[in-house]
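Narrative summary of target 7.
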Amino acid sequence: NNTNDPIQIRRYCVYNRIMPFDALIQLPLTIGRLFGSWFGQEFWLTRFIFIRALGSIYLVAFLGVLLETKALIGSRGLLPAHLFLQHIKAAQGPMAFWKLPTLFWIHLSDQWMTILALTGVGLSAAILLGLSNGISLLMVWIIYMSFVHIGQVFYGYGWESLLLEVGFLAIFLYPMFNLENFPAHHPPPKLVMALLLWVLFRNMFGAGMIKIRGDACWRDLTCLSTHFETQPLPNPLSPWFHRLPAWVLKGGVLFNHVVELLAPFGLLLTTPFRIIAGILTAIFQIILIISGNLSWLNWLTLVLCIPCFDDRIWRRIIPQSWLPSIPTDMGLSVMATSTQWGLLGLGVLVAILSIQPIQNLFSSQQRMNASYDPFHLVNSYGAFGSVGKERFECIIKGTHDPNNDDWHEYEFPAKPGNPQRNHPIIAPYQPRLDWQIWFAAMGNINQNPWLVHLVAKLLKNDPIIQPLIHHNPFQKTTPKAIKIDLYRYTFSPKNNPAKWQRSYVGPYLPPITIHDPALLNYLAAHDWPSP
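Modeled conformation, tokenized:
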């Protein structure tokens, strides 16, 4: 109390084992220095590349929202979001927002959906072009989460949670209001880079564990003998992969296990282990990308590989003429103390929220894709725990005369239908209706009530659904009846001009007309409008 001499104050604190206030303030900086010395070099270029790559994923995701949302979850869509929110509010009461946080609690209309989707497209494009900061990254994260939470089965995929988790961490990579590509007062937080690798670890290791615990074909190395044929949406190279020699396909499964079960631990180590793990993971994702249309799951995983490489790597790859704006004294930059405290809090939050995902990883009842908090901050991941041995497809047909055998097939943008049609290249874009019809073929009509609603809309040629259909055989007239048949599909032999061979399995949904009492009662039971 009687001196302002810092030396005397420190001596007093040491003697009485008290942490000085200035040392407490510098605690995050001390932790950051210790962490930085372990984690490696600088990440200015890594952050620059990562954010733009993430912006491209956001852009693809929001384009899908813009093009498909009205038909899927709009007021006249297959699963209207307003009915879904009504059920949630009735069940949860005042806690509905915290159970399902979304901007659509404030207002919900098709116009509001379009405005938010367009905002997401614009912000994503800006991030891709370099106009990014914490605010823009926060906004795209909130908007996309709002759509995911009302998307129901059409947004129930693991990569939705993956994008939200990665998008949340990305908010902390840049200052909130600065639009510079290389803000000198905000060096790339190495803690956030490490947390992104922690996401990549759980994504890859979770997929590996779900396979080892799942289908026996992953253990006897035979899964790839059917995977390329039975995956959701094969592309032009899928038949080539399917016809590879059996020993090559078994080697592919073994490589899968190395990348998903062993390489992830390299992500948690220092260089060069982290770089080697990143290269193996990137090669694996590129193979998956060229072998099928798997939405943006593999593209986003490829983006997550970027933090494996620090600026030393990128300087050897990127032409020096592209980097004239990077100052030479970046290593001397120190971020504000308040920012350091915020990052420390982020690390503590992720550590606490990681407890359940870690328990899930090592549980005998491992869940493949699961979220443990309403904001999808830390999640569990996994893919293809089981692989189909046969491919079944729901083929929707309509007719002008149910008494005659004159049925015409509806074609969708990407799913198999006409055996003569070429396999599409559509990823990373995801045609969500095509994906859901692929899932529906594994079950029955009672497990997929939205399919009945789709049939009702096709019976009256509802224009809201037309953007999701590639070929409508009844563009000028309405069909009198519609049915869904189940077919077994296999790749055609190598020299066959047809892309698929198919055989009839049986009826999935018997012929139904627009005045069918069963149809009208079914729609009324779900609060869907009568056609």
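Residues 44-73 form the longest helix (30 residues).
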